[in-house]
Automatic annotation (TrEMBL):
The chain crosses the membrane at residues 56-77, 84-101, 107-126, 138-164, 170-193, 214-236, 248-269, 281-301, 307-326, 333-356, 368-385. The keyword Cell membrane applies. It is a multi-pass membrane protein. Keywords: Cell membrane, Membrane, Transmembrane, Transmembrane helix. The keyword Metal-binding does not apply. This is MFS transporter. It is found in: Cell membrane. Residues 1-392 form the Major facilitator superfamily (MFS) profile domain. It comes from Pseudomonas xantholysinigenes. GO terms for cellular component: plasma membrane.
Length: 399
């Protein structure tokens, strides 16, 4: 086994503040990524373009993040990762300012290309920082805090961005994100210790993991869980309106409750995964499998739809931290390589799942979408119970 490219670091003076600052950075980048969700119509009206064209501001960064995640860690060479992370936050601030000042859709899309670069790079580096910042016994909790930025962005980031857009205009929503990114940058500068590496990562380091069966299983599981989720969640609004019979004004409150459940799931899995990784991921896959089945069984009424949505948030909330724990255990000597591949497959899953879901919704009924989603989650559960569980035991899992 090769030695790790991550050099030992000095113990941070305030390790949990450093972890929290990293969590704020991930919150900033995920909120920036998802911000257009609540602003599509006003952006389209202001820039004189179609809502579909503005929708590219969501698709483009996700696809590019899949490409840029491995590119950034290779291009970073032997540079201190603290400098890389701070540099990427500077670019994120500039991307949000460029978005706020965009005179047309071409300018906005160019700014979102830069956002995609930042998403891939920040996650590739920040995703594995828990192992360097926190004591060994608390790595699970630290990972949950860092990845809590994903769930917190759903609960707070996107709704607040939409509220700012409604009160002051969509440009001020992007400007506010620039301010938040600047705050995260200042905290990282103040709290993160130097993060040196012993050697640069090369493309050969990625090829060296081609025989790592545990890593391969984790990447396949990532693709299945994320694609299955976004296959259905992209259309959660019509599911709640058309299938469960909720009125439109309920959607915001329901999604907020979903986000709170996701935060809870994130921290529960963070505490469980370090000791019982295989079992934890199997429970996540089982929980996600039950969601479309509950929708199909009792989801044709508001109570059933609400139960399914809360279960969905609780189960999916732990996906990121659970899978990241798998990656760390699968490739402890190549954490940045594993993280970059994880981020790449995660974003491919977002794009593939939302595209496949759109094809089903355009040609079939929502019930067909739920059956396909259940099939994907069943495959994920089977993987965790067979090859995935065995591979996890080989890298230190205790089930």
């Amino acid at each position: 086994m090769s030695t790790s490219t991550l050099a030992p670091i000095a113990t941070p003076r305030h390790p949990w503040l450093a972890v929290g600052a990293t969590g704020l950075a991930t919150f900033s980048v995920v909120t920036t990524e998802m911000l257009p969700v609540g602003l599509l119509t006003p952006i389209a009206n202001a820039l004189g373009t179609s809502t579909g064209s503005v929708g590219l501001t969501l698709t483009l960064p996700s696809l590019l993040a899949a490409l840029f995640a491995p590119v950034v860690v290779v291009a970073a060479g032997g540079m201190d990762r603290r400098r890389i992370l701070c540099g990427l936050l500077v670019l994120l601030v500039l991307a949000n300012l460029a978005s706020a000042l965009a005179p047309g859709i071409s300018w906005l899309l160019a700014a979102r290309v830069l956002v995609g670069f930042c998403i891939g790079g920040i996650w590739a580096i920040a995703g594995g920082l828990a192992t360097r910042l926190a004591p060994e016994h608390a790595i699970g909790l630290a990972t949950a805090i860092i990845f809590g930025g994903v769930a917190a962005a759903s609960v707070l980031g996107v709704p607040l961005g939409a509220l700012i857009g409604e009160l002051a205009g969509w440009r001020w929503a992007f400007a506010a994100m620039a301010v938040l990114g600047l705050l995260a940058l200042m905290l990282l500068i103040a709290l993160l210790p130097p993060l040196p590496v012993t050697s640069a990562i090369t493309p050969g380091d990625f090829f060296a993991q081609s025989g790592n069966r545990a890593l391969q299983a984790g990447l396949l599981l990532t693709l299945l869980l994320v694609a299955g989720h976004f296959m259905a969640f992209t259309f959660v609004r019509p599911l709640l309106l058309s299938l469960s019979g909720f009125d439109g004004p309920w959607i915001g409150a329901l999604l907020f409750a979903y986000g709170i459940a996701g935060l809870l799931g994130n921290f529960l899995v963070g505490l469980m995964a370090a000791k019982r990784l295989g079992m934890t991921l199997a429970l996540i896959a089982l929980g996600l499998l039950l969601v479309p089945l509950v929708f199909l069984g009792i989801g044709n009424a508001p109570v059933g739809g609400g139960i399914a949505l809360l279960a969905w948030g609780l189960a999916y909330g732990g996906v990121s931290v659970g899978l990241m724990t798998w990656m760390i255990k699968a490739a402890p000597a190549a954490v940045e390589v594993a993280t970059a591949l994880f981020i790449a497959l995660f974003n491919v899953g977002i794009a593939l799942g939302s595209w496949a879901g759109g094809q089903i919704v355009d040609h079939y009924a929502l019930q067909h979408l739920l059956w396909l989603t259940a099939t994907v989650f069943a495959a994920a559960l089977l993987l965790t119970l067979t090859q995935g569980a065995r591979q996890a035991s080989r890298v230190g899992d205790c089930c």
